[in-house]
Structures
1.
Amino acid sequence: MGFEDKRIAIIGGGLGGMSFLNAALYAGLKNIQLYEQAPQFAEVGAGVNITSNANRVLDAFGLQESMTRKSSRKLPCYMEYHNYKNGEYLGHIEEFSQPPARLLHRAHLLDSLKERVPESCLNLGKHLASIERNTDAGAAPYTLKFQDGSTTEADIVIGCDGIKSNVRRDMGLADSPNYSGQVVYRGFVDYKDLPEETAQLLRKTVNFRGPQRHVLILPIGNQETGTDRAAIIGFMSETLDSWDSESWMSRSEISSLHEHVRDWCPQVQDIIEGLRKGSPDGRMLKQALYVRDPLDKWYEMKSGQKDSGIILLGDSAHSTLPHQGQGTCMAIESGIALATILRHWKNDDLESAFQFYQNLRKPRTDRVTQTSFEAGKLASSDSPDEMNNTFNPDALSERMKWIMEYNVLEDLRAKGADVLDFHDSRL
Ligand SMILES: Cc1cc2nc3c(=O)[nH]c(=O)nc-3n(C[C@H](O)[C@H](O)[C@H](O)COP(=O)(O)OP(=O)(O)OC[C@H]3O[C@@H](n4cnc5c(N)ncnc54)[C@H](O)[C@@H]3O)c2cc1C
């Protein structure tokens, strides 16, 4: 049974959509197409941290070797904290569980996610404009209309089109994302553009913890493949007055980040210099951080048809602030959950399958959204002078353990025992 032969359309080929496509192929869904608006696959920003909970899923797809080849190697701990002003070591968090976190360039992760996908499933330059819900007898449940005038038919639509999702709007959800009060400056530095001592320090994942702002360094890539660089993510409190809030994103002068950290320690000044050396126009990416409130219902059913519907996945359904590095990781977990449920559901009632999926995922993604907001507060400090006394990395680690130690594959096996038919499952 299940929905193995249904025409499934994925909207959006970001890390969420591509993870779901891998999951769908792994689970054995046969009739699946992905539509991405951009003319080619690309990712905004430099680095991404994929933690153990998500690597368990990607390893099941067979991507361990491919990702490890591209990631930074032998990181001594999960995160090390330093005082913003004098650079003093404040403590660290150990890696949580196996497989360890992998830190890599976003484009490299996307390359890994493309490796096992047949070209015939991928449709680029397809900006979804609207979804027609057909009522004529014999017509396909949905006609997807793209901006270039083309159309396609589908039985099930998966909206993986990010926090500004058109699919979500098309479902009548009119809520607006909330500005977090923070912007992020994103760029990367070549280790050769840093003094040796600073380069050594930044070969670890480091957080310079400052007053209502912090600078995070993720080592991405490795020397063996000539791809090693440090991704720099500066989280700064700013009001949105001067922003074009429609775009959320701009190229900003590196000096604008420098203004925030002018009196910070020498290592942070080295980072600013390194950013300048690597940026011919003296600019870097600046992005306003938005998040949506958790959504009550992630899907809609096609009226009069029990095996057709639309559902959201990734940032379109469960966006989160990035302070626990979990947006993509949640999409990866949700992807394997939804694909497995669609493939192995015991009957043809799609609504009960969607509801089971939502019940499995929503408590966890809502909790991640809430705790990521809190983690953002803890990553910086309200009172820098007391910072060294009050800061406790062990407590931070304890707060995140439940995220990293979770195994969605086991959870699916346990909770799905009565409703999923596992006889030909690879789970
Ligand atoms: C500063 C920062 C750091 C982060 N760090 C981490 C981290 O370390 N680890 C982690 O797990 N997460 C991290 N995240 C979160 C992560 O980036 C997102 O959660 C993740 O990229 C969401 O993936 P998505 O595919 O759901 O959405 P998106 O990445 O937004 O992708 C949506 C895709 O849909 C396409 N699209 C949009 N509209 C249409 C349309 N109408 N028709 C067709 N295609 C469309 C877009 O072109 C895009 O390719 C971070 C986020 C930020 C801002």
Note: The chain has a mean pLDDT of 94.
2.
Amino acid sequence: MSLSFSDDMLKEVQRIVESYPQGKQKSALIPVLHIAQQEFGGWLSTETMDYVATLLGLKPIEVYEVATFYSMFNLKPVGKYMFEICQTGPCMLNGSDEIVAYIYEKLGIKPGETTTDGMFTLKTVECLGACGYAPMMQQGKHYREHLTKEKIDTIVDECWGMLYKIIKNKIFPLGDRGYMGRKLLLEKLTLKASGSMSVPP
Ligand code: FES
């Protein structure tokens, strides 16, 4: 098995395990799976789940059972930004189906699919406890509420903007020397990636 947490992450896992009574290390499974998902590319491969099982002294099947039950765990690679649309009653009555259809129209992905550029994944999930703000979705650590087509447009642009910042910070790590030339390069990269977005000033 080649996977391994960093030393810092192993310390964090140990801290979580020790917060439960002796012999109850299984209780640490969900928080440790969250860490594993975050550390190993945003999803849980069989190898990752087996590693977590070894770490916690569990049988692999005990990890699979939990990871396949909860929708917050991804069992295949996902895009950089994930839209998890609630499809339970209140959200459905307030138009979640239309939102899913609009995302398909805009990004060409159905629930369970990822855009070919690896940017967006669409998922449908059950009630996320924000029914009063229907229709809503979870996007990373954020709840996006009272969704409309216009809000989806804004959110998609925001995601491209966040990626733009990441690229910019990589290209300009030491500041703005030679700014114009690198701005042009960045513009080409960003436009190529998004197919639509203009570069902020
Ligand atoms: S029904 Fe969508 S958040 Fe509860």
Note: The pocket of FE2/S2 (inorganic) cluster is lined by residues 86, 88-91, 127-131, 134, 136 (CB under 6 Å).
